[in-house]
Model the fold of this input.
Amino acid sequence: MTKNIYIDENLENYISKNSYDLHPIQKEIIEHNNSLGDIKRMQISVTQAYFMQLLIKINNAKKILEVGTFTGYSALSMALATKEGGLVTCLDNNEKTSEKAKYFFNKAKMNSKINLIIAPALETLNNLVNEKKLFDLIFIDADKENYIKYYELAFRLITNKGLILIDNVLWKGDVIDDNKKDGMIKIIKEFNSHIKNDQRIEKIILPIGDGVTVCRKI
Done:
């Protein structure tokens, strides 16, 4: 079997330098997150952002939903890829990081393309279902304990042939280590099994970032 290449920080920088240029505020968010210590891991990788932007452009996705925003790197990346009239609706419950994200969105002059709702995501997702909202692409990157609930609600909110992306599904590769009994690994493995057994979608796990599952509603 062909082995996938390991993408470390140096290779990630090389990818960035040889892809299209990052927006100045994307660079600023990365610099800010790097100053935060261990929680900087909550930011998606540059490679992931490039991939998501390409998916948005290929699928002409205009209505996008993000569950879990942190300081705004992924949301800004997606908003930059949408055409005029596109909107990224972001759900997050952390007021401190959300205010920082709003600062970056404003600085990037992306306010008209990003709507950040600060509230428990399950509550907002249920409201969106009741309002019969639909989205072309949904990205889930929030508390893993609720991943299955987020996914099931997202399925009700995605358009036919729409895409649902879920982050952290390989959990640093620990999902294949049976010697590790960490509760989070168990949660991720249960979620991956849930997706595997869902016949309503086409799905694939891609080894970029910390692992991304791409689901297409059929």
The first strand starts at residue 63 and ends at 67. The first helix runs from residue 9 to 17.
